Every structure is written in C-alpha cells, then in structure tokens.
C-alpha cells in the first residue's frame, strides 16, 4: 500500500513552546509541541468518536472497542502488548469520552518510534477474538457496578441523562448491561470501519521530540485509508424541560446534583462561565464551600462544575450531606446564586478567580499529557484554530465583573435546573421528585 505523504505542514511560535502541524494525504492530522528540556514524550491517537455517536441499541460500543483493542492484535497477544511497552519503561492506556476516544502512551524520548508503532498496532489491527469479547463483557459489567456504587459518579451520569435524553449526549459512556451483552465481533468491526477512518484521527504528541521524525514514523506505521468516506454529522442537543428525580439506594448520606445545559466549547461566553464556576464552587475560598461547609457545616464535600462539549455544556453543583439537611443545603445554594444575580461580583473576588484559572492553565503545561490533550482538542473541538496560552490569559483578563454577572443572570435561573437526589434507603427505589419541589416552593412562598 502506498504510504501517505505530507499534504500540509505549518509551524507556529507560541509563548510556551513550538507548535507544529502536518496533515497527511490520507487525512490524518499530526500535531506536536517540542519541549526540549524534558526527557519524556506523551503521544495520543485520538479518534473523533464517542458515546454521542451511538444509538440506544449500540450504546457503549465505542468504550467496549477501547477495551478490546488491548486484547490482541494480528501481531501481538494481550501479554505481548503490555510487555512491549513496559520493556521500554513506558505506560500505555486509553479512555473514551462522550465525543472522543484516545489511545496514548508515555515514553522516554528515545523510544518515539516504538511508541508510535505500538499505538498503530492496537488501533489498526485488533482481532476481536470471540472468547475475549465474552470475557470482556464480564469486565465491563463489573465496571458498571463500580459506577453504580460510586454515587458521586453515578449521580453525574443521571444528571446528564435527564438533561439531554433522548439526545445521545445523555447516554452513559460505558453503555448498559442490556446493550453490552449484545455486542458481537461483527458489530465491533462494523463500528470500527465506520469511524476509525484517517479523516477522523488526530495524532498529538508533546515532549522532547522532533516533529519531522514523528511524521516519518506515523507515515510508516499508520496505513489507514478512507474505507467508506464516512463523515459523521452530529446534531446539537435540543432544549429539554428541567426535571426533579430521586433514587433511594443503600447509602450513609444523601447525594445531590443540580445542573442545566449551557454553553459549548466554541461559545465565547465559555470563559465567563469558567470564572463564574471558579468563584462559586471551585476551591476552599469559593462561595459555596465557605458558606455551606464552613459557615453551616452541612456538608463535607461541595463544588460546582462546568462540563463542556463541542456544542453544549452543563453547569451544576454537587454535594453530599445528611438526608435531613438536603432542602436546607439546596436553599443555601440558591441563595448564593441569587446574591450574584442581584448584587454582582466584587472586583477583588473576580481577580482571585482569574488568578486560579490562569494558575491552572500554566501549571497544566508542566504535564506532557495535558499538553498532548490540549493539542488534540485544538483540532477536534476548535477546528485547528490554535490559541497560545498567552492569548487565552489575555482574553480572561479582559472580562469584567458586570460581564460575569450578566452570564449569572442568564444561567442561574431555578426553572432551568434539573435536580437529582439519591437518598439513603434499605431497598432500591425510583420515583419522581415533583412533590419535593412543590413542598419546597410552598415553604419559600413560591
């Protein structure tokens, strides 16, 4: 098979490093940052497919394929895959998100060639042995149990489901017992052929590397062709009415998660919401932590979060507390929300939030894995529009307190928010929580 040749190459001098990009003739994008003072390299093969590209019949298949590529290729068995990487002191792993799948390796700089080769093998040559498929189903069933037992993670999945369903962003990444049990070798290969095409692949790397050598090895080892020219068009999620839902499960505390759909990664308002999230519930100096934990002692853990996708996002709050304090704590959350909407933000408070965001960005650059992931997101989320960290910081610095208050007024509307509660109980039960909201509104004079 004819090797891909370079179709495009460009280099950008940034504040933090050298950014290089090459697009091969077959469509694979290669992006890298050269950091000469480190000894390691982080390399990721990113496939632009996640659980949002599934349906209710094959939900979880992307994640299952991520597992199965480690169970043997045409060249190596499971043990040989692990030993090949560990023999050179490296680390090989993978993860699946709602929008992407990443296979990555962390290695010393002298093993760039071996790192690219092992990634090419697992991505291109899985055998999907039938016995291994059935065995791995059991592994995934155990992973589902782990999630259900980790109520902080489980309630997050429930929130996303109720905010987005029937849009596939509401599907769990791992799938369900019912869908996973029906996966076959043929279905795995069908999904692989549909999505694992070079135009859907970004290879990103950061560390002590030479970009041209990376391109040379990718061109040598990655022989993917456009099997069917498939390009997946993703539908933006539609607005869904807020709901209130409770599950009663064996637990020692109540777990509470409230959230609403909001801006995606490409929306200019995302920076404002990052700052709002930081001052509300990110860290020990945040409003929610200082008030609900430090002042009232209702919770041990409380934080706000901003989960971001390409065309949507979720802003919300999570906490766990004694069942008798659930309504009180939720009232206090809304009190803090309403204070920001009504009274705005003190400039000093916003300066602290900006300092936290900037610090997080800059400290993140010390990790080659973080740099590698950032490069991939530039291609997969921002369509290859490179933003230097310095540009991002300057953009954040320009945001005013009034602009953050305006975003708060738009987002922090109680009628927009879905509320999920897991209460302690002896037996598993599910019921709607409309009655709880009705009683709370009566108490608050609504």
From TrEMBL:
Cofactor entry: Zn(2+)
Top-level division of the source organism's lineage: Bacteria
Stretches assigned to the Peptidase M16 N-terminal domain: 29-176
GO biological process, one term: proteolysis
Peptidase M16 C-terminal domain: residues covered: 182-356
Family, similarity comment: Belongs to the peptidase M16 family.
Protein name (database record): Predicted Zn-dependent peptidase
Species name: Kryptobacter tengchongensis
